[in-house]
Amino acid sequence: MQLSEQELVRREKLTRLRELGIEPYPAALYPVEDTASSSTAKFEEGKKVVLAGRLMSRRIQGKASFAEIQDSSGRIQVYFNRDEICPGEDKLLYNEVYKKLLDIGDIIGIEGELFTTQVGEPTVMVKNFSLLSKALRPLPLPKTDADGKVYDEFNDPEMRYRQRYVDLVVNPSVRETFVKRTRITNSIRTFFNEKGYLEVETPILQPIPGGAAARPFVTHHNALNIPLYLRIANELYLKRLIVGGFDGVYEFAKDFRNEGMDRTHNPEFTVMELYVAYKDYFWMMEMTEQLLEKVAQDTHGQTEVTVGEQKIDFKAPYPKVPILEAIKEHTGHDLHGKGEAELAEIAKSLGIEVDSSMGIGKLIDEIFGEKCEHHYIQPTFIIDYPKEMSPLTKAHREKEGLTERFELLVNGKEIANAYSELNDPIDQRERFEEQLKLSEKGDDEAMFIDQDFLRALEYGMPPTSGIGIGIDRLCMLLTDNASIQEVLFFPQMRPEKKAVELSEEEKAVRDILKPLGQMPLAELKGQAGLSGKKWDKSTKNLVKLGLMKVEKTEDQLLAHWVE
Predict the structure, then answer these.
(1) Those residues with Cβ within 8 angstroms of residue 32's Cβ, 6 or more apart along the chain or in another chain
(2) Of 480, 411, 493, 471, the residue nearest 173 (C-alpha)
(3) pTM (2 d.p.)
């Protein structure tokens, strides 16, 4: 492992601390009694406090120093005075340990007294301090120049998501996003608990990946010698519990779908699913409105929230738009009664890519997703989906070929999906068999037949309504974040590229070529000033590493930097 100059210096300080008999990573508890926020909120002049946190800044002026420490509640100013910390003749703790061996990022414990500075800032007069953890890497802290311009901010998404622990330390707004996320889930739990619904847990490893149309992750159980799947939904297990006699159950579940990643999709995501006996999808729409009103109020103190440039109001009631009417309005095509071939031609005419594995349900879904979804900014229930799109949904009581299903769209994205649940075991078996036909055509998102779930339905499931709410997308809305990665502590990332060690000659070639992007190979060789042997070795290795490529044009060879 190659260390930077700063990392080497910090390791030297680590050694020096141990030589002085100071353990940089002590085992004993530190008796924290106060926080930065509580010390300022309940400020009393002269009050004794004991805090711990990360050293985030300091201004040393001889025998005194102002600094800031940051804990989970925020920051507070602290004042180090040599004679307060070292009242006797031995000033080593201040002169050596504090001034020379501590660094920004170190975690320290502080005992002291509160006082107010001449400019009125609540501050801790440090009486004693302890090193609790030595930071061996420097924090990427932003710097502000004399003109107020900020430099070196830690704002590259790739780095922030990969090193979320650093992101949380140096970007306070990120911490607030996740505090709000917890507030959102707590609000939902409170709403359901007050109604007497039971929070439950269902299997993540499943022999049949049911409850949704999605491509699953597959693994193998060695002892049982069977394939198992990471769940794509928890729906079928929750409905088994309704069969078992519970009137209302819900679960915050981690689901997994083997699909691409973008600003609204992560392979691992959180969904809340609720099932309530003796209800239908009309009842569920009203319940959803009540729930989201409460969550918005609990998170923001009002039902209106700002999302980008939009003002979105979660105040009920929400419009209800049949999906086929929405498609007709936004595309001009009436899809009622259309067969697979006709739908495929319509999709192609709208510029939608079509393949032979796509049945009626997926074709309608693609048309709606591409041409209609983005129009629905305010909360809107899209209702009455065709049967082919809804294999777990009860047939509509009045409209032939449709089902009692709704999706809630907000800001152009689906937030919730809900049904009057299909409880006819014979109809359900036929729907599963239709899905099997789609699978045989090559649709890798078609549902499996879950024989045990069918057996459960044969024992009798009461009329039931269920809903799934995408927690990550809801959190995106209520925290004004456009990317799902911003509301996941640790989003899935591509493998981290290993740092490539270059020779001095290779670095010389890189430093000339990289800023320009491309240049004639002969000109690059002249500027590099390397001997023939070193030139050949360096350029060949850069090409082998994939950092440089050479292109032959009509009159010369052109070098490109491709990192």
Answers:
(1) 50, 51, 52, 109
(2) 480
(3) 0.84
Q: What does the pLDDT look like over 475-534, one tens digit per residue?
A: 999 999 999 999 999 999 988 777 677 888 998 999 999 888 899 999 999 999 999 889
pLDDT tens-digit map of 227-275: 999 999 999 999 999 999 999 999 999 999 998 888 889 999 999 999 9
Mind giving me the DSSP string for 436-504?
Answer: HHHHHTT-TTSPPP-HHHHHHHHT---SEEEEEEEHHHHHHHHTT-SSGGGG-SS---PPPPPPPP--H
What six digits make up the tokens of 322?
Answer: 């049949």
Thinking of the domain 504-561, which architecture would CATH place it in? Orthogonal Bundle (1.10)
Residues 420, 424: Cα–Cα separation, whole Å = 12
CATH superfamily of 174-319+378-486: Bira Bifunctional Protein; Domain 2 (3.30.930.10)
Quick count: other Cβ atoms within 10 Å of Cβ 31? 9
> Measured between alpha carbons, how far is 258 from 216 in angstroms, rounded to an integer?
5
Decide: helix, strand or coil at residue 48: strand
Q: What is the rounded CA–CA span in Å between residue 381 and residue 285?
A: 8
Q: Which residues pair with 532 in a beta bridge?
A: none
- 440 marked ligand binding residue: no
* Residue 414 marked in a binding site: yes
What is the dotted CATH code of the domain comprising 5-139? 2.40.50.140
